[in-house]
């Protein structure tokens, strides 16, 4: 699905629809494609555009240094009718450094590197939350899952996936800070909703 100018109402509506079952505009992890679209929008979408707003706030939760470190990605925005590729972020800090220069220049280079902010290790985790039977209220179960809050935890998109016999599982995405959130503890807290949840599986785990 190609998206037009996100500064227009139609473009934002297209983006909201595009993100209905996606956490990011390109793949399962944030990329320069997200930065490109995020910067073009400039401000948070209206609350009626819930998917676009959720995505906008998620990208905004990262620091500029983290966003700069993301890889390139295919943007859904169109240029001449075709999706465009967002370039990888350039490291401007190194452009004016002569690695074969004097000791003073090498020292300046080392100092410049030491002042760069440390990146926070994050992971994208997709969880499969399985109910007991087809009579489980899946909407309420999702509300229970999203009610879990931890420092370093951000819930993303979700969808219901049929597993057979009229039963559907909740597949929900999240972004975690590795040093602050334990996936094992997170799954245990979800399983504590024992009136709704039969089991929790990790469907995907990717370092960001």
TrEMBL record:
Positions with biased composition (Acidic residues): 90-102
Keywords carried by this UniProt record: Elongation factor, Protein biosynthesis
SMART domains found in the cross-reference section: EF1_GNE
Cellular component, GO annotation: cytosol; eukaryotic translation elongation factor 1 complex
Region (Disordered): 80-102
Domain Translation elongation factor EF1B beta/delta subunit guanine nucleotide exchange stretches: 122-208
CDD domains per UniProt: EF1B (cd00292)
Gene Ontology MF, one: translation elongation factor activity
InterPro entries: eEF-1beta-like_sf, EF1B_bsu/dsu, EF1B_bsu/dsu_GNE, Glutathione-S-Trfase_C_sf, Transl_elong_EF1B/ribsomal_bS6, Transl_elong_EF1B_B/D_CS
A Pfam family that the UniProt record links to this protein: EF1_GNE
Entry's family note: Belongs to the EF-1-beta/EF-1-delta family.
Protein known as: Elongation factor 1 beta
The organism of origin for this protein: Operophtera brumata (Winter moth)
Lineage, highest ranks first: Eukaryota, Metazoa, Ecdysozoa, Arthropoda, Hexapoda
């Amino acid at each position: 699905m190609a998206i037009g100018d996100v500064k227009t109402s139609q473009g934002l509506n297209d983006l909201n629809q595009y993100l209905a079952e996606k956490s990011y505009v390109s793949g399962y992890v944030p990329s320069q494609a997200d930065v490109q679209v995020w910067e073009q929008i400039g401000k948070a979408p209206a609350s009626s555009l819930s998917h676009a707003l959720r995505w906008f706030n998620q990208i905004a939760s990262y620091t500029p240094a983290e966003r700069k470190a993301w890889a390139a990605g295919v943007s859904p925005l169109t240029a001449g009718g075709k999706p465009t590729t967002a370039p990888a972020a350039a490291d401007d800090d190194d452009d004016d450094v002569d690695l074969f220069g004097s000791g003073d220049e090498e020292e300046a280079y080392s100092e410049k590197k030491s002042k760069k902010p440390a990146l926070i290790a994050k992971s994208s985790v997709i969880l499969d939350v399985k109910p007991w039977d087809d009579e489980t209220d899946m909407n309420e179960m999702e509300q229970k899952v999203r009610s879990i809050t931890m420092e370093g935890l951000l819930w993303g998109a979700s969808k219901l996936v049929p597993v057979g016999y009229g039963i559907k599982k909740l597949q929900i995405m999240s972004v975690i800070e590795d040093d602050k959130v334990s996936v094992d503890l997170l799954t245990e807290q979800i399983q504590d909703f024992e009136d709704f949840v039969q089991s929790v599986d990790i469907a995907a785990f990717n370092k960001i």
